[in-house]
Amino acid sequence: MANKPIVDFEALKNNLSNVSKPIQVLNEKAEITDQEVFDSFSDDDLVEFMKKMVWERALHEQTMNFSRQGRMGFYAPTEGEEASEMGTVLAMKKNDYLLPAYRDVPQLIQHGATVTQAYLWSRGHVAGNKFEARSMMPQIIIGAAYDEAAGVAMGLKKNGEDAIAFTYTGDGGTSQGDSYEGMNFAGAFKVPALFIVQNNGFAISTPRAKQTAAPTLAQKAVAAGIPSIQVDGMDILACYAVAKAAREYITAGNGPVMIETLTYRFGAHSSAGDDPKRYRTKAEEQPWFDKDPLIRLRKVLEDKGLWSEEQEDKLVDEYKASFKEAIKEADAVPEDKVSDMLKRTFEIPTPEMKKEIAKFEAKESK
């Protein structure tokens, strides 16, 4: 997929304060804006991208249904961000190390975890962390995954691995000190890290305009000496091409890169119950709904005779059926015990903790 370098990161490194138009291959009207890059994708590539976005949209819809039924723990909706998430993660290799935030569960699944494990993680069950993917568990602390990524990338560099650490945060995450500290370390030691900012416009209810006066969030990498770029986060082709180019630049030994994807969260911040209607108007939302990444690529595929409504409906039914099986598997896993949780806290329990373990074991045995 996509052999043409879409970004000159070395030029960006020499002109870090430059603010350019976000990279785009397919605009909101489904018009091709970069024919050479578009032509580098085969028909099979385009169909596969569409399937991945349909999968994530179906995952969001079905998981929100489970949440309303009280069958999930914390869940961060992803509707609207499919191009940003699928486009970037598909450009990575399985030996790359993912440092996800809590909205990055779809990427974690694509990188190797199972849906069942993701559901168990949402419930706070220890089995939800026992995935084989080369990844940490999703980070709840805002921006902290950037620190983790810098450290993991240092380890990859010291081990001489042909791999990178890639991580995500939202626009709100760039207002946290952890994000800058992670980027500063990565830039100073020239480690193989890719920092992705999914700018969906809001840090829960705080709009991006009230978080920072910076013209772009990508520019926040400037102080760390890291080349950065904005990309249309509703265009999966652009997200993939830019992420792929960034990975190639990083693995060539050039140090880290930061990508800001301009995307939008169609619904609430989380399943915990915030109401977007209290801080967003329909007039603000509609232009972003019109940029829906699925609508955009769907039109291209339909025009090429590669996609149909029937085909998509069948896929959605298949995906949702698999998610229903995954929740059943999660339901069948024995509940985590408090005594086991305490045993995992320290390698050698303290005397007081030993008493607590014994107390809970006695209760659990009844």
From TrEMBL:
Coiled coil: none annotated. Residues 50-338 form the Dehydrogenase E1 component domain. Keywords: Oxidoreductase, Pyruvate, Thiamine pyrophosphate. Pfam families: E1_dh (PF00676). InterPro entries: Alpha-ketoacid_DH_E1_comp, DH_E1, PdhA/BkdA, THDP-binding. Its EC number is 1.2.4.1. One of its GO terms (molecular function) is pyruvate dehydrogenase (acetyl-transferring) activity. Its cofactor is thiamine diphosphate. One of its GO terms (biological process) is branched-chain amino acid catabolic process. It catalyses: N(6)-[(R)-lipoyl]-L-lysyl-[protein] + pyruvate + H(+) = N(6)-[(R)-S(8)-acetyldihydrolipoyl]-L-lysyl-[protein] + CO2. It is an enzyme of class 1 (oxidoreductase). The pyruvate dehydrogenase complex catalyzes the overall conversion of pyruvate to acetyl-CoA and CO(2). It contains multiple copies of three enzymatic components: pyruvate dehydrogenase (E1), dihydrolipoamide acetyltransferase (E2) and lipoamide dehydrogenase (E3). Heterodimer of an alpha and a beta chain. This is Pyruvate dehydrogenase E1 component subunit alpha.
